[in-house]
Every structure is written in C-alpha cells, then in structure tokens.
Amino acid sequence: MLEPIKSVLGKGPTLSISFGYSVWWNLFLISTGSVISAIALKSFAVPHEFLAGGIFGLASLIYYSYGVLTPGWLYLILNIPLFIFAWFKVSRRFFYYSCYATIVTTIAYEVLTIAMPVQNQMYAAIACGALVGLGSGMVLHSLGSNGGLDVIAVYLFQKFNIGVGKVYIVFNVIIFSFSLLELPLDIIIASLILVFITSVVVEQTLSMSNQRKVVFIISDNIDMICHDILHELKQSGTFLKGQGAYLREDRNVLMTVVNNLQLKKLEEIAFRHDEKVLLIVENTFSVIGSSFSRRKVY
After folding, report:
1. Is the entire prediction scored with pTM above 0.85?
2. I need a surface site. Which of 38, 101, 147, 241 has the fewest CB within 10 A?
3. What's the 3-state SS for the chain?
4. What is the pLDDT of residue 1?
5. For the chain, what is the radius of gyration of the CA atoms?
6. Which CATH class is domain 211-284?
7. Cβ distance 137 to 202 under 8 Å?
8. CA-based nearest residue to 167, from 296, 52, 285, 54
9. How high is the pLDDT of residue 88?
10. pLDDT mean for each 10 residues of the chain (298 residues)
11. How far apart are CA 291 and CA 280, in angstroms?
C-alpha cells in the first residue's frame, strides 16, 4: 500500500523544496523583508525615538545620544565585525545572504522616505512592531539573516544549542538598561511593547509556512481512506500497528501530515468512507525530511 506513494509524490515535493532553496527565492525574501523593516523603522521607530532592539536598537541609541551619522549607517558599521565573525564561524553562504540583507536595509532606510503621520506613541509602537516582525520573519525564511544579533544567535544555537530567544533577551536587557540614562521612561515602555510585538509577529510569520497537522486515523475502512489520501491529496502516510483496548483486535492506524488547507479535505475523505472514523489532529510547528522541508543548514 505504501509503494504508490513514491510514484504519486516523486516530482512535486522535490521541486518545491528545490525552489525554496534557490538563490532567487532567497534574494526575494531578503529584499522584500528588509525593505519592509527599513520603512517601518524610519517611519515609526526613529521619529518617536523608539528602540527596536538588537543591533539597530544599539545604532538608534547612539544616534539619539550623540547625533552622529544616521541609524542606517551606524547599523551597517556595527555589523562589520559580526560579518567577519560569520565568515569564519558560520558559513560563506550565510555570510553573503546576511551581508546582502544588511546592505538592502541600510540603502532602503537612507533612500526611502514614507511619512506616517501617527502621533500616538502606542499606535506607532504597535504598527512598527507588526511591520518589523513581518519583514524580519520573511528574511528568516531564507538561508540568511537580518544581520546584527542574528549572526551571534545562529552560531550559539548551532554550536551550543543556546536558544536564539535567550540571546536576544540578554542583549536587549543590556540595551534597555543603558537607555534608562538617555531616554524618558514612556519611550522605553513603548519600545518594550514594540519589541514584544515584533517577536510575536516573527513567530507567526514563520509558522504560516512551517506549521503542519499530524493526523492519526482509526477506521475499519483504513485502506480506502489511505488510497484517496494518496491520490486526491497527493500526500503520503505511514501505517502504525495498533490494538483495540476492548476487543483486543489488531488494526492499522494511519498517520499522515497535512497543512491547514488540506485538513478539511482530509476530513471529507475520512468521513466519506466511514461515518464512525476517529481522527486525532495535533499541531506541529515543523516537519523536516522526506517530501517536506529540508533541514535548514546555513
């Protein structure tokens, strides 16, 4: 029953995975995400003197305190030692993509000016956090990064399994501690809201394409259900050996992985063949290998 899986799925997923790792697709994600982030930072964060966290937050704090250069150029300069670190400690591909992201962000920040006449600090922090989170999430879908603290975070995660979030928390605590000496408390609180919203939107942006549903199907007509899943959903499956707790009868339990759009169609297939079918659905953030996504190697 599992042999048809290879013939049905042989071309589609492989092509999709290869496309996701192509240079042009990565450049598109990095370019679009970097421009969105730069516009948000220039239109909302800097006019209200917010700290966006990370290296750009450090660049902004230097700009607010001393007025030298602009946050965009300071951001580029502060990234230079981190890029040298990425060249030797992470990978060449990661270095090139991250350099590209930082250069695009700096150019977009310096060239593009889109006025956002939002006076309320809370509204500005929310809007900035949402847009920066969206842009950063798009860049993190690629094989590069937004530069800055991402370089250190990726290295520590690969080398010592230290979570990316922990690196950002420690660095931002230091930045916001120093900002207490330079900025009003209202600005700092609004900046904390901005950083929190950014992190939430980044997670949601990443999960839009990564989230899957693991489905366990128990039915007396499991072979017919499996056949339609293979040919209608073009999706694979695995039989697990199970035993009923009451009658102690051996039976096959079908496990399959689908996305959110496929789930409703899967329900229709299952109940079409068996009105008493049992579906157990679990959320999973990431499925790596086989016909799904490749393990991300920088």
Report:
1. no
2. 241
3. CCHHHHHHHCCHHHHHHHHHCCHHHHHHHHHHHHHHHHHHHHHHHCCCCCCCCHHHHHHHHHHHHHCCCCHHHHHHHHHHHHHHHHHHHCCHHHHHHHHHHHHHHHHHHHHCCCCCCCCCHHHHHHHHHHHHHHHHHHHHCCCCCCCCHHHHHHHHHHHHCCCHHHHHHHHHHHHHHHHCCCCCHHHHHHHHHHHHHHHHHHHHHHHHHHCEEEEEEECCCHHHHHHHHHHHCCCCCEEEEEECCCCCCEEEEEEEEECHHHHHHHHHHHHHHCCCCEEEEEEECCCECCCCECCCCC
4. 40
5. 24
6. alpha beta
7. yes
8. 54
9. 84
10. 38 47 84 93 92 88 88 92 84 85 93 88 93 88 78 75 69 83 87 88 74 86 89 84 80 84 85 89 67 54
11. 22
Q: For helices 149-160 and 164-179, what crossing angle results, to 10°?
A: 140
Q: Which string of b and e fits 132-168 if b means at least 16 CB within 10 Å? A: bbbbbbbbbbbbbbbbbbbbbbbbbbeeeeeebeebb
Question: Which structure tokens are listed for 37?
Answer: 């982030």
Distances from the Cα of 183 to the Cαs of 60, 99, 188, 251, in angstroms?
11, 31, 7, 66
Task: Give the start-to-end residue ranges of the domains of the chain.
Answer: 16-209, 211-284
